[in-house]
Amino acid sequence: MRTLISGGTIVTAEGSYPADVLVDGERIVQIGQGLAATVSADETIDASGRYVIPGGIDVHTHMELPFGGTFAKDTFETGTRAAAFGGTTTVVDFAVQSKGKSLREGLDAWHAKAEGNAVIDYGFHMIMSDVTDASLAEMDQLVAEGIPDFKLFTAYPGVFYSDDGAIFRAMQRTAKNGGLIMMHAENGLAIDVIAADTVAAGTDPIGHGLARYSGLEGEATSRVIRLAEAAKVPVYIVHLSAREALDAVRMARDEGLPTFAETCPQYLFLSLDDLGHGFEGAKFVCSPPLRTEDHQPELWKGLVKDDLQVVSTDHCPFDFHGQKDLGKDDFRKIPNGLPGVEDRMDLLHDGGVVAGRISKERWVEITSTAPARLFGMYPRKGTISVGTDADIVVYDPNRKRTISAKTHHMAVDYSCYEGRSVQGAADVVMSRGSVVVRSGEFIGRRGAGQFLKRATADYARMA
Ligand SMILES: [Zn+2]
Description:
The protein has helices at residues 76-85, 103-114, 133-144, 164-177, 188-201, 206-211, 214-231, 243-254, 265-269, 296-304, 344-354, 360-374, 459-462; strands at residues 2-6, 9-11, 16-18, 20-24, 27-32, 43-46, 51-54, 56-61, 66-67, 70-71, 88-96, 121-127, 149-153, 180-184, 235-237, 259-263, 310-311, 392-402, 421-431, 434-438, 441-442. With 463 residues, the chain is α/β, with parallel strands linked by helices. The chain has an 8-stranded parallel beta sheet. A 7-stranded mixed beta sheet has the order 3-2-7-18-19-20-21. Strands 5-4-1-6 form a 4-stranded mixed beta sheet, with no helix packed on it. Strand 11 (88-96), helix 2 and strand 12 form a beta-alpha-beta unit. It is globular. Bound molecules: zinc ion. Zinc ion binds next to loops. Zinc ion is lined by residues 60, 62, 314.
């Protein structure tokens, strides 16, 4: 099967230019102008007036994550399908090691969830919630199996939390096996004390935002960066939300440390105010919490200056009715997480490129190329060039649409962006040479997504 994508403007992190793209089987085999006159193809996709971009890569999703006695609603089938609708063709999800269990058991469980269900390619990071001699030894094996990143938490005492010694041991091991440490950095011990005081004064969701001080994200971020420095290991801060945390990352990067960080659309477009309005605010409960609006311009600055390299979603959807209401009488019991995997590309295009904050090339970089580089998928994923996987999106930068739970494809009963109009939408989405979404219709296949065995990256050279 040969497909010609003709007449579009190729946009990569490096630049933009008009050219046709020829796909043969699963790969891009030729790029050039006027290919229609010289090559034969089984199908031609007209991309005139539109961008031809590498498919989005979302390196932070939680399909079917168990949390607070329930599970995130999207399965690998529904979640990856929603991702595809939004122009994302690769997700990296978090397999979870439960306390007292091995990494292997957690990894096997995640393979079982994804295999035969995902409609686009996927990889895994490993969440470590129990650092022991045995789990430390398992880390090396996981790196060899294409799972080279390990996420640890300074938050959620009693669940995912690791103390500094445990984190440091995992860091030392990773320094030897060449992998990457990912950190959820909030001071969970202090936050639990503050949250207990806060709930005594009021049980509404706003308490969730008020209790999780931004300064305590800054403190934990600074601490884990210094632990990583001592262990001589690269560190990646997940879902950075606060100016104080960005300051810590910026300082480390200015020192030349291999410190990396992502933020998420919710921290760029939503704020603490959304946590108000009584229990409606439960729709916006995630950790770290939404911050006051004054953090947003700082995060944009971080993206412009490359102190933040990636925007991922932390997609972790819970229904408002039947799941979020577990915390009706105590905001601490509201499952933490928001839906987002479907809307990331469009929100960033609209609020970033159309709004004049970033170039379209930078938009591609933070949503696809940089995640591919940092997470060992480049150049197979994350760019448009000969020999790479044909994960391609024909993107209309002018089409406007309104985000709504009525029309989205995520398996969740609300949208954080209900009624918001965005400019820019994916018209055709191709995963390894097969069209999976066209004109708002899913034509892919459940189970077509493959597990991505990822390599370690040369983090030091990317610092
Ligand atoms: Zn997460």
